[in-house]
Amino acid sequence: MLLTARRARCGVWLERRLPWPERRTALRRWRRTRPFWAGLLLMCGGAELLLVPLSPLTVLVSLGLGGLAALGIGLALIVAGLFLWYAPAAHHYVSIHALILSVLSFAATNLGGFLVGMGLGIAGSAMGFGWTAGQAPEAEQMPGQAPSGGRDTEALRGGAGGPGGTAGKALAVGLPVALLLTVGGPARPARAAAGIPAPPHPPTVTTTMFAPQGFTLAGVEEVPTADGPIKAIVLRMKSASLTDYRLTTRDGGDELGLSADSLSLQGEVTLYLTKFSGCLEGLICLTFTPDTLPVPPVVPPFVFMTDVSAEQALVTSDLVVADGLRLRAGVRSGAGG
User: Fold this and answer.
1) Region class of 284: left (phi > 0), else alpha (psi between -120 and 50), else beta
2) Averaged over 135-139, what is the pLDDT?
3) Cα separation values, 104 from 70, 125, 323, 331, Å
């Protein structure tokens, strides 16, 4: 009771000192009749997705499909926020589509605006979906104004806490979680290429930029070699481009090197790697081995990796296009002449 009285006195004090009381009252009444904060969060998330590709950071993919997706999803979230403001009756339909776009931004743009834009979009979508028309807490009434009682107060409380309102809130909380689990669910089991043996000591591959399209981490599979099977990480993709590609054998004998200014793998591309390391989006450097993968395997969301180093057991592709291909043969230091 004491806290309530203090809040009321503080509200009266602010009302007397802040300008434009009539405009603030009209804005408050307008705000109560629509999911105002949900729309504001969606517009903030969309603006953040728009601004990230336009920032001066050099690690961003601001051109091509990634940049277009950021612009498209950002504009769509801003429009969804405006719809929640000016067409609140369609809040269920708008919120579901805004939620799908927010989750897809994690894979289609720069990690959903480095998680900020995606997080704002998911929060705004959940709030918009769970909003119930007619909710107006007594704490938001004008200071000094008598609280409305009787049927009106009971109706407002029934709208907020009734069966429909409770179900809407529960669905608003569970829907983002279910969609995230669906998008990032387990991938298909890996299948090693039959009848293609890998070298006992996989060669080392380095590239300054690895940009896959339709990338999937398929899991771990045993690959046959002359010395017995070895475990390998299986990566599947529709295509991939590698910049400053270098391959070097490491079997202890004569050293062979293969290099190219750029290498393009197209078609059904599958990589079998015993070790894989690189910097995610040029920021977070990680190393993966067959024993350090998440269980179950998931579809990773990143767009590209820099400073990649891998031990490549096997690679299959429908088409390989190389620019500036060079082959080098030599003797490893310490080996006999």
Assistant:
1) beta
2) 45
3) 10, 13, 33, 50
- Total Cβ atoms within 10 A of residue 193: 16
pLDDT digit string (tens) for 285-305? 778 888 876 544 444 545 678
At 264, phi and psi to the nearest 5? -120, 125
> With the CA atoms of 70, 71, 77 and 78 taken in that order, what torsion angle do they form, in degrees rounded to the nearest 10?
140
27: its two tokens: 């804005």
Q: Tokens at residue 291, please?
A: 């024993």
Q: Tokens at residue 55, please? A: 């920032």
Q: Give the 3-state secondary structure of residue 251.
A: coil
The length of the chain, given as a count of residues: 337
User: How many C-beta neighbours within 10 Å does residue 35 have?
Assistant: 26
Give the C-alpha separation, 38 to 23, whole Å.
Answer: 22
Question: Tokens standing for 167?
Answer: 């179900």
Q: What is the mean pLDDT of residues 230-249?
A: 89
Least confident window among 7-11, 224-228, 244-248: 7-11
DSSP 3-state of 303:
coil
Average pLDDT score, the chain: 74
Which residues in 132-229 belong to E strands, given as ranges? 204-213, 216-223
The owner of tokens 């608003």 is 172
Let me know the angle formed at the C-alpha of 172 by 169 and 176, rounded to the nearest 5 degrees: 155
Residue 184 has a CB neighbour count (10 Å cut-off) of: 15
Q: Tokens in use for 69?
A: 């997706």
User: Is 0.90 topped by the overall pTM?
Assistant: no
Single-letter amino acid code for the residue at 153:
T
Tokens 């820099």 correspond to what residue? 306
Token look-up 């009756």 returns 89
Asked whether the beta carbons of 240 and 312 are under 8 A apart, the reply is no
DSSP state of 321: E
Both structure tokens of 313: 């057991």
Residues 274, 223: Cα–Cα separation, whole Å: 10
Q: How far apart are the C-alpha atoms of 55 and 186, rounded to whole Å?
A: 34
Higher pLDDT, 62 or 217: 217
